[in-house]
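Problem statement: downstream parser choked on a complex file, so we are re-checking the raw output for the inosinic acid run. The parser issue turned out to be on our end (a line-ending mismatch), but while we're here, posting the original submission so the record is complete.
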Amino acid sequence: MSGVVIVGAQWGDEGKGKVVDLLAEHASAIVRFQGGNNAGHTIVRDGEEFKFHLIPSGILYPDKLCMIGNGVVLDPRILLGEIDGLKRRGIDVGNLRISANAHLIMPYHVLLDTAGEVKLGKLSIGTTRRGIGPCYADKALRLGIRVQDLLDEKILRKKIMAALEPKQQALRELSVQRRKLRKEAGEGGREGADPSVAEAPDPRLDLHAMTEEFAGYGHRLEPHIADTARLCWEELDNDRTVLFEGAQATLLDLDHGTYPFVTSSNPIAGAATVGAGVGPTDISAVWGVAKAYATRVGAGPFPTELDDEVGRHMLERGHEYGTTTGRERRCGWIDLVALRYAVRLNRMSALAITKLDVLSGIDTLRAAVRYRSREGAIFDTFPYHQSILHSAVPEYEELPGFDADLTECRSETDLPAQARAYLDFVADFVGVPIRLVGVGPGRDQVLWIGGEPEVL
Ligand code: IMP
C-alpha cells in the first residue's frame, strides 16, 4: 500500500504538474484533493503543450484512474471546457472520476469574489477571481451545491434558491456601496446617473436559468460522477500506489500560510486525507516541489522578493507569467527559512527542485537563511506573527553561480560543480533529500538524483 502526496513547497506555480506527471508512471491512480480552477498547470508531452486548471495531471495516462476529490471546488463550465479540449485532441477521458461530494463554483461565487476584491481596493488579496473563497465559504456555511445535486433538478433548484437569496442581497449592497463611493469621488457615469440600471436584476442570477444550465452540466458529467474515496481505498487496499495531487502551495495554506494572503483551502499534505477521503496511515511518502528560486502571484509578504536585474532575469528566463490569469509573477531568491518550514509542516520525504536552468548566468546566487526583524531580532524559523513577516529582512548565504546552459543535462554528473553545490546546500539546510531536478519544461528535461525510484 502506498499513498504519495505531492505538494507545493512555496507560493505555488512550482511545477507540480510536471512532477505529478512523472511520478504517475509509478501509480495506478491520481487524485486532486483541494483548490479549484485557481490552479493552472502545464504539461509538455512530445513537444505538445497541455494546460489544465481542474483536471488532474494524470489524465494523459489512459490506464490510470484520474480523480477530482471531494475537497476540490469545481466550476463545471471550466471542467467541461477542459474535457472537450482533450477530446478534440484525441485524448480519452473515460478514466476521469469526479467526487459526488465536491462543491460547485456557482456564477454568484465568481461575482462575489470580484466584488469583494474591488471593495477591498488597495487591501485586496489579489485572488484569481474564480470564486474560490466564496465557494468554500458556502461549503462551511452549509449552503453549498454539490456535484451530486446536479443529478436531481428538484433538489438542485431548492438548493440554489436557498443559496441565491443572501448572495443577491450581498451583491446589491456591494453595488450600492460602490456607486456611493464613485459618486463621492465625482465619477457619475451611467450607473451613477440612473440607479434603476444597477438595481435591475442581474440575468446571471436568475434561478430558473441557472437551474436549467446546471442540470444540463449534470447530464454531461454524470458518467464521471463517483464515490472517489471508495475508489482510492480499492487501489490502496490492493497494494497499488495512489498519488494525491495538491494545488497551490504550503505558504498559501488557509491555516499555515501568510494569512489573509492565502487561498481558501488547505494545500498541505495533511489535507490530502480530508480532501480525498483516506486515513493518515494511508500516506507513505510526501514529495514537496520547489523552484530553485521563489515566485509569488498576488499580494502578501515575500521577504526575498527582488526588484532588480536579477528579478527580471528570473521573470524573463523563467517565463513567470500566471497560467490562470496571465499576471506577472513576483520573483526572488530561494527562501530556505520558509522552505524548511514547509518541509516540516508537510513532513516531506523528498524534494523536487524545478527550473534550476533559470539560474544560469547569475554571478552569485543567494539563499535566505534567516530573517532580521525591524527591531533587530533574528529569526531562524518562519515567524508566525504577520507583522514580523511583513517587515522581515532576509539574511543570505552567498554561493557561486554558473554560466553553463543546463537544459541538456540529464544526470547529476552533467551539472556544473556550482549547481551541484547549490543543490547540496539547499538539501542540507532543509534536511530532506532532493530526488528530482528540473532543467526545462520538457518531460525529459529532468534528472533523478540517486536514480529514478522503483517505489516512491
Ligand atoms: P484564490 O485562491 O483565487 O482565492 O486566491 C488567493 C491567493 O492565492 C492569491 O494571492 C492568488 O494569487 C493565489 N493563488 C491561487 N491559486 C494559485 C496558483 O495556482 N498559483 C499561485 N498562486 C495562486
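For whoever reads this later: The two ends are 11 Å apart (CA to CA).
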